[in-house]
Write a structure and sequence with these properties.
The protein has helices spanning 38-52, 66-73, 86-99, 111-117, 134-145, 161-170; strands spanning 10-14, 24-28, 56-59, 78-83, 104-108, 124-127, 153-158, 173-181, 184-191. By secondary structure, the chain is of the alpha/beta class. The chain has a seven-stranded mixed β-sheet, with helices on both faces. The relative contact order is 0.15. Mean pLDDT is 88; it is low at 1-9.
């Protein structure tokens, strides 16, 4: 995720819906931290509305917490947020306390180290790494696809819809929904069913 560099600047994000709809969360200036746009979150959570309640979610590049807290606000049973930046991690802890978000757990780790250490199963995976390093997305999808089973969804966000589609093709993921606006693109996908 990405915002301006330097200083003590803070960014903010407003949650859209659910029990915390309208609440504003603040996050620190961290290089590469780029919250998912409001319009994209609205689209994504409209897609997820039928299934978000009682789901188990993993937000692997949590950053501002926009996706993870939105999922928790929408009724997810549990949301794990993983963030490698200590500064952003501490901000996530602070926001979770502010919201009394008992259904959220937050880890200060890289996506890869978390996936290697925790074999938990999830219904929805959110992958929204810094746009400047698409290799991270490729590597993380490779790690996750072995854990995906029928009915589980993976959300991919990046700056290029063509790249995201190729990623899905290369990793046998069926595109369930997609959206693209300017330099932002998102795809909700599921594991391709094996043909007998």
């Amino acid at each position: 995720m990405r915002i301006k560099r330097g200083g003590n600047q803070k960014g903010s994000v407003r949650l859209i819906s659910g029990k915390w709809g309208g609440r504003v969360l603040y996050f620190p200036s961290v290089d590469g931290l780029r919250p998912t746009l409001r319009s994209q979150r609205e689209t994504l959570f409209n897609w997820l509305r039928p299934i978000i309640k009682n789901s188990r979610c993993l937000d692997l590049f949590a950053g501002s917490g926009a996706l993870g807290f939105e999922a928790a606000s929408g009724g997810a049973t549990s949301v794990i947020m993983v963030e490698k930046s200590k500064k952003a991690y501490l901000s996530l802890l602070s926001n979770a306390e502010l919201l009394s978000a008992e259904n959220c757990r937050i880890f200060n780790a890289t996506a890869q180290s978390f996936l290697e250490r925790y074999p938990d199963q999830f219904d929805i995976f959110f992958l929204d790494p810094p746009f400047s390093n698409p290799e991270i997305l490729e590597k993380t999808v490779s790690l996750i696809k072995e854990r995906l089973s029928e009915g589980q969804l993976i959300y991919l966000e990046g700056s290029n819809i063509k790249f995201l589609k190729e990623l899905c093709q290369n990793h046998s993921l069926n595109i369930y929904k997609e959206s693209s606006a300017g330099q932002r693109a998102g795809i909700l996908a599921e594991k391709r069913k094996q043909t007998p």
